[in-house]
Amino acid sequence: MMTRNSPTQRWLTLATSWMRVATLRTLSKVYGPVFTVYFGMKPTVVLHGYEAVKEALIDLGEEFSRRGSFPVIERNVKGHGIVFSNGKTWKETRRFSLMTLRNFGMGKRSIEDRVQEEARCLVEELRKTNGLPCDPTFILGCAPCNVICSIIFQNRFDYKDQTFLNLMKTINENIKILGSPWIQVLNIFPVLLDFFPWSYSYKKLYTNTAYVKNYVLEKTREHQASLDINNPRDFIDCFLIKMEQEKHNHQSEYTFENLTITVSDLFGAGTETTSTTLRYGLLLLLKHPEVTAKIQEEIDRVIGRHRSPCMQDRTHMPYMDAVLHEIQRYIDLAPMSVPHAVNCDVKFRNYLIPKGTDILTSLTSVLHDDKEFPNPEVFDPGHFLDENGNFRKSDYFMAFSAGKRVCVGEGLARMELFLFLTTILQTFTLKSVVDPKDLDTTPAVTGIANVPPPYQLCFIPV
Q1: Helix (H, G, I), strand (E, B) or coil at 12
Q2: Tell me, what DSSP letter sits at residue 68?
Q3: Do 196 and 203 contact (CB within 8 A), yes or no?
Q4: Torsion angle, CA of 19/22/27/32, rounded to 10 degrees?
């Protein structure tokens, strides 16, 4: 990876688990912000700290924009979609998806209208708990998944619809499988895929991916039969229109295969990340009732109780804005993000990184930087407020990563988090079933993603 004379080059073989945050922190103290580890026989460069991460992902964004190796998924997606594609496919698919999400003033409803509608459905579903203790995991998963379904398929699902439940189940299972030790071993030693192609985890991942692809193809055929090129209804319609426009281009990226993988990417990234953040956020608000009380005072003052929150309200709610940022900073959802790689030989801080080398960026080291965020291990909305109580932006807020590979759904996720949480807190008082001091906010699972521990709460109507 780096030149042999590099004083910070050290080799470390990690065969059965994802890089631990504590391990990286320890190594960075010894070897600096740029060092090499080995996954099996494969060298990987780790970037630790804001300056190194910013220099790579933003200042040298094009050079570091390649997606890193993920063999288990690569065999399923075959270079298609947004998350794990590269080159022309990635650039064209990402550009199209961003444009479609940003300009979704299709038909009669914008994306904000759809999220507001789902927020209303969400609180109605929470009312059905009748103030009794409940685990919010399922309901909080339904809401963002339904927003994605609305954007892709035009319509939302009832929370008890079996097709909807099946889609959510496959997404949830795949996220768990991708974080399992066996899949990590297969990623580190991909040759094992040739010897164990039908191991339970890989077979289940393959089956679930095929299920989603077949469902998308089925819906695509229905869309083709009723397509009006002058009135696109959703993401699939927009993609089909591009396919028609480029039907004579044999190098076109607009194919059925790319459509199915792109939609699968939107499902996975748009459902689990947002629902996990919502779930973790409610746990933190239970743990810190004084924060919840200040949010609800701000809601009463800015919005009141008789109209739905809208995105314009956010500019008048600095405390809520700070809380949302602090939730994402504190939980550190994706500690290492998804692996990057360099597109070409790169000279980086006097080191030579050869083309194709995988790059791991420690987002934890940025979000928990103690110079930017005093006492970073403490949940404190003050990290994003100035001395006058105004919202304070921070370049260190990289919860969605940064640079060319920043999350394509960042704008949608920010909207969902604000509208869902604000609507919940406008409608309910949160009540913990145990003393808030006894609530544990330590992640139950730490690896590719930080997952909160299971808990119960009561939603008491205001």
Answers
A1: coil
A2: P
A3: no
A4: 100
- State the residue for tokens 């692809």: 213
Residue 2: pLDDT band (50, 70, 90) is very low
Place of tokens 């009463």: 300
CATH architecture designation of domain 7-461: Orthogonal Bundle (1.10)
DSSP code string of 319-364: HHHHHHHHHHHHHTSSTT-S-EE-SS-EEETTEEE-TT-EEEEEHH
Token output for 127? 């009312």
* Boundaries of every domain in the chain: 7-461
* CA distances (Å), origin 235, targets 12, 90, 100, 105: 44, 17, 7, 12
pTM to 2 decimals? 0.91
Q: What is the mean pLDDT of residues 29-37?
A: 94
Per-residue pLDDT tens over the stretch 298-307: 999 999 999 9
User: H or E stretch including 245?
Assistant: helix 235-245
How many helices (H) and strands (E) the chain has is answered by: 16, 11
| C-alpha dist (Å) from residue 24 to 31, 218, 422 | 10, 45, 36
The mean predicted confidence, pLDDT, of the chain is 89
Tokens of 50: 């804001």
Pairing relationship of beta strands 358-362 and 42-48 according to DSSP bridges: parallel
Answer yes or no: is 407 a known binding residue. yes
**276, amino acid identity:** T
Residue 10: is its pLDDT beyond 80?
Answer: no
